[in-house]
Amino acid sequence: MDRSSLLQLIQEQQLDPEHTGFIGADTFTGLVHSHELPLDPAKLDMLVALAQSNERGQVCYQELVDLISSKRSSSFKRAIANGQRALPRAGLLDQPGLGVYKRFVRYVAYEILPREVDRHWYFYRHRSCPPPVFMASVTLAQIIVFLCYGARLNKWVLQTYHPEYMKSPLVYHPGHRARAWRFLTYMFMHVGLEQLGFNALLQLMIGVPLEMVHGLLRISLLYLAGVLAGSLTVSITDMRAPVVGGSGGVYALCSAHLANVVMNWAGMRCPYKLLRMVLALVCMSSEVGRAVWLRFSPPLPASGPQPSFMAHLAGAVVGVSMGLTILRSYEERLRDQCGWWVVLLAYGTFLLFAIFWNVFAYDLLGAHIPPPP
């Protein structure tokens, strides 16, 4: 049902004859059933939630229009926060007869979202088009680049030790700081098959469900913010080291998701969440430990410093700050939240500082960086 049809229906049925700006929830629900209007069950549930937040059991006319238009209003958020939300229908897990794809959508809802009302909202309004193309495209591009360089160098592990590897125009190298694209394109290069496999697995297992729920724009912003923060942090804290791999973006996604799970522990319904949390932390810590080992104790002779591990840590910080703000704001406008602007201000300040650092600090400090390949 579109906005114009809703307005016409309300006018014809005179649901607000006194022009008070409010409509009885029971009256509107009965109208929906009597006219067999195609209104999502989740929206009917939310209509009840809005009515329960009103002393007279009424819904503001504008809030009703926003609900039909799939806009999550602040009043609905307050209805949840005040504990006045009661789902009249059974949980999604109790629904039989679902197809394979709808079962996968239900699985994603319980993996990502902490509230049953949000799971209903996502389940009923989810559409398969557009698909989660960002994470899939990034992963595919990383695999293709790795295969190309692997075939060219005839080396599939520890590729950074090959003298030709660092000559790639995609790798971030401190000697090529003026080539600004390298601060992002390094995410397509990887040390070896082990790092690519770890990152690709997490991007598909965590990144794709997050993109399905929160959308391409938000998840791509979070991922790229982690990647950019990773290279900039390395340029400040490990000035002689290059950077390769998409770990900055991967750790931003994983840290945001894990932090969201911890902060909504009671509401998360994903199975074996404690065991999975421990395994995720162990795997992420092991990857950081491996990167530290390769940075300071290279197993093979190298012509220069090996890639830094600081991108992992920078991505995790971005995930806990910016990422957590995004994941906790499902279907809510970020620009209406004070915390979002605080995070953006902090990130923008970091970017400005990093830019000035890269322009002036290397010469002022007399940093001895390896010659660019």
From TrEMBL:
Superkingdom, natural source: Eukaryota
Known EC number: 3.4.21.105
Tell me where the transmembrane regions lie: 133-152, 183-204, 216-236, 248-267, 274-296, 308-327, 339-360
Query: InterPro entries given for it?
Result: EF-hand-dom_pair, Peptidase_S54_rhomboid_dom, Peptidase_S54_rhomboid_met, Rhomboid-like_sf, Rhomboid_IM_Serine_Proteases
Topology relative to the membrane: Multi-pass membrane protein
Extract the coiled-coil ranges from the record.
Answer: none
- The chain positions of domain Peptidase S54 rhomboid read 179-328
Keyword set for this entry? Hydrolase, Membrane, Protease, Serine protease, Transmembrane, Transmembrane helix
Where, per UniProt, does this protein localize? Membrane
Give GO BP annotations, semicolon-separated: proteolysis
Q: Please give the PANTHER family that the UniProt record associates with this protein.
A: RHOMBOID-RELATED PROTEIN, RHOMBOID-RELATED PROTEIN 1
- This one is known as Rhomboid-related protein 1
The encoding gene is: RHBDL1
